[in-house]
Design a protein that fits this description.
67 residues, alpha+beta, 3-stranded antiparallel β-sheet
Amino acid sequence: MSIARVTEIICSSKRSFHDAIEQGIERANKTLSNVEGAWVKDQSLVLDNGKIKEYRVILKITFILKD
């Protein structure tokens, strides 16, 4: 039987939501073992004088716990 855990991370990028997601998953894989999935919980933008300064996503990362 496998037991999974879900953790929430916030990621950002100056380029795109897609880039923020990729960076977040890459970083999660450096810290967490057995990452099995992820989903986007929320997206937001940081604006500066009406222009997009930063793309942010909140990711839920699922990983399997070791025995």
